[in-house]
Amino acid sequence: MMWQVPALALAAQAFLLTIALGSDIGRLSRVIAALLGLALAGMSIQLMAKYRYLEVLDSQLLERLEGALRLDHTLGFAPHAALSERARRSHSSASWLVRMSSYRLWLGGLALFGLADAVAAAAALVAI
Questions:
Q1: What counts of helices (H) and strands (E) characterise the chain?
Q2: Is there a contact between 72 and 78 (Cβ–Cβ < 8 Å)?
Q3: DSSP structure string for 12-70
Q4: DSSP state of 78
């Protein structure tokens, strides 16, 4: 579910930014579209953060269950071990691109869309 949010938000942002940046569209329509895009960026960031929080809670409960089942002894390492430990045990290595936090990257990207929306709203207000 968490990854449906940015995909849908990007589709909506494309639509709203097309309106907000359109030169042949009325000023009020451009301001409204840009402000809706800004609100959408904020709502998407909040929803992703909430889903991430709930996922961490579920992960902690699962980790306790795995510990009670002693899966770390069966596998030779904890299923919730750090990515580097799991990759090492699997005789694999993750590139820097894989190690990067997708969650933080998407939050930053959505924040940039929010910034673009704010600039588009300001530009429409001053009729640039």
A1: 6, 0
A2: yes
A3: HHHHHHHHHT-TTS-HHHHHHHHHHHHHHHHHHHHHHHHHHHHHHHHHHHHHHHHHHTT
A4: -
Distance between CA 97 and CA 13 in Å, rounded? 25
- Spell out the residues 6+ positions from residue 9 whose beta carbon is closer than 8 angstroms to its own: 40, 41, 44, 110, 113
Give me the sign of the Cα torsion angle 112, 118, 124, 128: negative
Residue 29: CB partners within 8 Å, gap ≥ 6? Answer: 19
For the chain, which residues make up each domain, given as ranges? Answer: 4-73+102-125
Task: Give pLDDT < 50 ranges for the chain.
Answer: none
Residue 92 has a pLDDT of: 82
How do residues 67-82 score in pLDDT, each as one tens digit?
Answer: 898 888 888 878 887 7
